[in-house]
Structure formats: structure tokens, C-alpha cells
């Protein structure tokens, strides 16, 4: 069956043209249709059209934002057969792929679309005043979310360092807040600077934020970063390597539901 490739030309860096991507698929004997998207509306329209046509195989050609957009468009429709999602890492961040140990080189990643080795993957659902959204990697609220906004303002030329730089800029003026986090087995009451709800392991350009997370266990890994801003200087280096879970300022839980 043909792969429907959604290419985001605004993701990260100036990636290969549609013709180059299509040629790479042909070299491996893979049937593909390349669609360039400019807006979220484009993604929604393409997915809706292909859903009506009975297509079930899609590729996000971009970064984690492109994956997020595609997943939300897909889960907005009922499927008799769960759709298959592949990823070509063409963005500034491709953290979702890291959990699968898929190469960050898009040509090497493309070879993983050959054959029938499929992995069922959980998706998280977020409900709020904004409506309903889905995620397959990591959701967070607090200084990490502010870091994403800051990183979007920084020059793309610094690549994966944008998130790290954005984090330290955001941290400087970010206050800790009293929070209550309810999970299946326990409630966490604390003054926190960040809350992470993870399905996948990595975020922020390769930081191993949830080293014990599994995409198929039906559970979300919850991490509440408590304490003051200054503790980030000791916690962040550990986050990079996934060694932060035993730090006194990090409270953890696993749960199907988080409030």
C-alpha cells in the first residue's frame, strides 16, 4: 500500500525537496505520495481525504511538531484498522524516534518503512478548556513549556541547542507554584516548577526525560519537579542522561490517568 507522506517545509532546517524524497522512496521500492503542508488545516484536509479513500499508512516528514499534527489529525477519525505512522526526521527535534532507536538521518530512517515490522503505540489524551488534544511523546506544563516558546524565537542555525538555551532563558523568570497532581495510586502536593507526563522517553533535543517510559504499557510516566529554580542546576545535567529520577526534588508516579 502507498505511504502518504506529509512534508512540513517549515520544520527545523531546509530539508530535501519533494522530488528528492520521492526518489529515495523509489530507490527502496516503496510506493509513496508526497504532500507539502503549510498549515494545520492542510494536514487535517489531507488526512480526512485519505481516510475516506481507505488509506492507512502515513509518514510525518518533519520534526516532533509534524508528528504531533499528524497524530491529532489521524485520531480525529474512526479507523477500522489502526493507522500506521512512519517518521522521516527533517525537523530541529525528532525526539519521538529516539525511543525506537531509529536513526536521525532521514535516509536511514526511511529504510525502517520497509517490511511489516510494526509497533503498537499508546497515545495520551489531554482535555481542557481548549478542547481535546492527543500526544504520543511527552506533554509538560511549567518551565519546560515556556522553554519551548523561547526556543521558537531563537535562530534555527543553533539547531538542537535551541531548547537548552530556551530553558535557561525561561528559568530565569519562572516562579514555582503550588500544585496538586492526582494519579491512579497517589496524589502529589508540592511547590513545583515543572510537571512532565511522558509516553515516550526523550524530549528537548535528546534529553532522556522519562528513561523508564514505554510506548506500549498503557501507562503515563509522571514526574513533578519540585523546589526552587536553583535546583535546576543540579537536576538538568542528570535529565540529559536520564539519571534524575532519584533526585530528591523529583517526585514520580505511573498512571493511566492524571489530573
UniProtKB/TrEMBL annotation:
Keyword vocabulary terms for this entry: ATP-binding, Kinase, Lipid biosynthesis, Lipid metabolism, Magnesium, Metal-binding, Nucleotide-binding, Phospholipid biosynthesis, Phospholipid metabolism, Transferase
One Pfam family, short name: YegS_C
GO molecular function terms listed in the Swiss-Prot or TrEMBL record: ATP binding; kinase activity; metal ion binding
GO cellular component, as recorded: plasma membrane
InterPro entries reported for this sequence: ATP-NAD_kinase_N (IPR017438), Diacylglycerol/lipid_kinase (IPR005218), Diacylglycerol_kinase_cat_dom (IPR001206), Lipid_Phosphate_FormReg (IPR050187), NAD/diacylglycerol_kinase_sf (IPR016064), YegS/DAGK_C (IPR045540)
Domain DAGKc: 1-133
Required co-factors: Mg(2+)
Coiled coil: none
GO biological process, one term: phospholipid biosynthetic process
Listed NCBIfam families: YegS/Rv2252/BmrU family lipid kinase
The protein's name in its UniProt record: DAGKc domain-containing protein
Organism this protein belongs to: hydrothermal vent metagenome
